[in-house]
Amino acid sequence: MKTLLIVSFHFPPSGKVGGFRPWRFARYLPAHGWRVVVLSAQTDQGDPAPGWDPQVLAGTRVERTRAFLPGRASWVRSVRGGNDFPPGDARDGAEGRPPSALYRGLRWIKDVTVIPDEHVGWFPFAVRRGLAMIRRENPDLILATDPPHSALMVGAALSRLTGRPWVADLRDPWIADPFRRPRPRARENVERWLEGRLLSSAARILVTTDSLAGWLARHHADLDPQGIQTVRHGYDPELFEGLTYRPTDRFRIVHTGTFYGTRAAVPFLEGLRGFLDRVGPERSAVRVDLVGGFDPENRDRTLRALCRLHLEDVVSLSGRTGHAESVRRMVESDVLIYVLAPRAEGDLIVPAKTWEYIASGRPILGLVPEGAEATRILARFGRGPLVSPPDDVEGVARALAGLYQRWREGGLASDPPGPEFEAFSAPRQVAEAARALDAAVGVEAAEGKDG
Questions:
Q1: Once rounded to an integer, what is the mean pLDDT over residues 95-102?
Q2: Rg of the chain over CA atoms, in angstroms?
Q3: Banded model confidence at residue 118, pLDDT cuts 50, 70, 90
Q4: Which of 8, 74, 128, 216 has the lowest tally of Cβ within 10 angstroms?
Q5: Cα–Cα distance measured from residue 97 to residue 105, given in angstroms and rounded to the nearest whole number
Q6: 254 and 371 fall within a common domain
Q7: What is the mean pLDDT of residues 346-374?
Q8: Cβ-contact 13, 52 below 8 angstroms
Q9: In which region does residue 360 sit, left (phi positive, over 0), alpha (psi from -120 to 50) or beta (all else)?
Q10: Dihedral (C-alpha) 191, 197, 203, 205: value to the nearest 10 degrees?
């Protein structure tokens, strides 16, 4: 059996979404001839994943090392001047208080000097522990999963120092990330160079969308397109076992996930208000649950929209919840809301929840850019209307009215996708990853013999 060292900043029992994909690799790769060991960070990574069973990975060795994260230090948060929550926390900025001038100055310094991200403080600790693990475990291959981008630096460094081949796993775009804050030009140039340098040293590159694979091939001429492979996030079938949709006397609309950047809740809320105006007194039957978080700006805009549109009696903000609980709410909803940002995001990103939304068998009202990869996936497998562009408020109102009428007539029964969709289950997608890992080892071995 071959051995794979996974480098992942996040890993269960943390409930951070960045740990789900490497956890699936660790769980399903042994069936394809790969023993997995994991190098992760020993930090406060959020609440434990509900339902986490350590016995699932009882045979997987996970080692965690320290990480110096200056941007998350309490003294940095203390000078923000706004709410005392970590940057990016859904509660941060909820009262509209902007960060202090001192904090903005510190953030500018960080933008100039902390490259590629604030997790770079994990790099020296991870490389040191990784070298020890390689001496002890003798892995055939290293896989580093991004984000954070610093994990790619760890993977490349371990490969260079030990001669082991490595694979870059990009869960999201790096330079092409549509949600990147503007950086100083010098930093942008350095990161573009660094992305190309790291990826060109990888034996294989895994991505989660075909569109990102194409973008990398177009923007990095030294990359072999044949060495870039799409492995979807997929869904875990067992999460849906025992869950059943049962209609009630409430029309339950649910959104799970985070609103951030230009992926905003406000267009949906404005369309919701238009729909409620149409149904009049029947609005008492409508309930909307936004399950997840917000970045500071989106939370502020959403709270103001709820007041402006008088939706406080209809819409609830449930906050973040565990993965299993999120899936349960998907299945029990009457309608799921799916929101993408304008075209730039839809061209490169297919959110991980997409596959779970479809697997739930519930109607999906998608606010999506026309022609994007996620839009095409929903059109092929989804059960519900798509509204393009995402800010078509009147289109949202009409779609909700149509779904509401179907609900009143009992026409929103569970409608799971067909057998064709099983190819996107996590076990099947990890099987695709295993083939890429086998190829990475084979390529490296062939090159070594030729040398």
A1: 57
A2: 23
A3: confident
A4: 74
A5: 17
A6: yes
A7: 92
A8: yes
A9: alpha
A10: 30
Examine residue 155 and state whether it is found in any structural domain, yes or no: yes
Q: In terms of C-beta density within 10 A (0-12 exposed, 13-18 middle, 19 or more buried), how is residue 450 classed? A: exposed
Q: Rounded to the nearest 5°, which phi and psi values hold at 45? A: -100, 25
Q: How far is CA 23 from CA 7, 99, 296, 430, in A?
A: 11, 36, 29, 11
Which amino acid, one-letter code, is at 248? Answer: T
- Note whether 241 and 227 are same-domain residues: no
Edge-to-edge strand list for the sheet holding 315-319? 315-319, 286-291, 251-256, 335-339, 364-367, 386-387
* 151 domain residue, yes or no: yes
For residue 124, cis peptide bond before it (omega within 30 degrees of 0): no
Comparing 3-7, 12-16, 169-173, 400-404, which segment has the lowest mean pLDDT? 12-16
Q: Is residue 23 part of a domain?
A: yes
Contact 268, 258 (CB under 8 A): no
DSSP letter for each residue of 74-102? HHHHHTSSS-SS-TT-TTTTTT-PPPPHH
Domain of residue 249 covers 237-408
Dist. CA 319–CA 23, nearest whole Å: 24
One domain, residues 258 and 166: no
How many CB atoms are closer than 10 A to CB 389? 15
**Domain count of the chain?**
2
CATH code of residue 56: 3.40.50.2000
Strand partners, 264: none
Whole-model pTM over 0.90: no
Q: DSSP of 287-327, one letter per residue?
A: EEEEES-B-HHHHHHHHHHHHHTT-TTTEEEEE---HHHHH
3-state secondary structure of 8: coil
Alpha carbon distance 377, 86 (integer Å): 35
Residues 267 and 280 in one domain: yes
Question: Residue 240 is encoded by which pair of tokens?
Answer: 């849906």
Contact 229, 204 (CB under 8 A): yes
The pLDDT tens digits for 150-190 are: 999 999 999 999 999 999 999 999 999 888 877 788 889 99
Amino acid of residue 252: R
